[in-house]
Amino acid sequence: MWDHLARLHSGFLADIIAEEFGEAVQAYIGVTGRNPRKGVYGTREDVQKELADVIVTAGIAMIAVAGGNAEDARTHLEERLNVVTERVGG
User: Fold this and answer.
1) How many folded domains does the chain comprise?
2) Boundaries of domain holding 30
3) pLDDT value, residue 39
4) Is the pLDDT reported for residue 4 higher than 70?
5) DSSP for 33-86, written as a single string
């Protein structure tokens, strides 16, 4: 995964994270019907696609923050995942 993200890193724009997250939220709202004016629309697959886009974009952002070093970004994510897992008792 990190090799793919590193290849995408060169075209990264920071504003894309917020855009992708917003699309994921909108897809979730559609599937759950949380907007009474629009009712239920979309599919769970739409939500999964949008959430995957958020994960990809966040990974690219992590590489950008790590100065383009995908291995540093991967290590940081693994360390953070361990901290979060321990905190929730997993």
Assistant:
1) 1
2) 2-87
3) 96
4) yes
5) T--TTT-S-S-HHHHHHHHHHHHHHHHHHHHHHTTT-HHHHHHHHHHHHHHHHH
Q: From its phi and psi, is residue 33 left (phi > 0), alpha (psi between -120 and 50) or beta? A: left
pLDDT (tens digit per residue) in 24-43: 999 999 999 999 999 999 99
Phi-psi region at 67: left, alpha or beta (left = phi > 0; alpha = psi -120 to 50): left
**Amino acid present at 39:** G
DSSP code string of 27-41: HHHHHHT--TTT-S-
Q: What pLDDT is recorded for position 63?
A: 94
Residue 53 and residue 23 in contact, taking contact as beta carbons nearer than 8 Å: yes
pTM (2 d.p.): 0.84
